[in-house]
Write a structure and sequence with these properties.
Largest sheet: 4 strands, parallel
Radius of gyration: 14 Å
Strand content: 15-25%
Helix content: 40-55%
Number of strands: 4
CATH class: Alpha Beta
Strand order of the largest sheet: 2-1-3-4
Distance between the termini: 46 Å
Structural class: alpha/beta
Length: 130
């Protein structure tokens, strides 16, 4: 058993990140899926149903790491519509380095993966002169 990973993002971002990650890692070491939040104002009830369904599919007993694109956004609000008792951790500001770092440590626990996600996202952003 391992932790599942769910990307909750604005429309288009999650699948693109997952597509890039699958080019780097052709065999996914963790179960990963995406929930895209449309720009058109889809009902919160429908989004909650979709979120809960995906969480059930991804959770093998160790919980699900939810990677969200932007804290305080609609996807962020959707990521909180988890059914009571579901073991999840949320990390905001998902980027490709964060996702790849998580996927490289499939043996870690949910809380350890959340810490790895934060570190991977942070160290994947840098500036270079010239």
């Amino acid at each position: 058993m391992s932790v599942g990973v769910l990307l909750v993002t604005h429309n288009g971002l999650g699948p693109d990140l997952l597509n890039c990650a699958s080019r780097v890692l052709p065999i996914m070491p963790l179960k990963v899926d995406c929930l895209e939040v449309p720009w058109d104002g889809t009902s919160p009830e429908l989004l909650a149903l979709n979120l809960r369904s995906l969480l059930r599919e991804l959770d093998e007993g160790q919980g699900v790491l939810i990677l969200v694109d932007l804290y305080g956004s609609t996807p962020s609000n959707v990521a909180h519509l988890v059914e009571p008792g579901r073991l999840v951790e949320r990390v905001y500001g998902v980027n490709l380095p964060m996702l790849l770092r998580v996927l490289n440590y499939p043996q870690l626990s949910l809380s350890e993966l959340a810490a790895v996600a934060i570190e991977g996202g942070r160290t994947g952003v840098m500036a270079e002169d010239g």
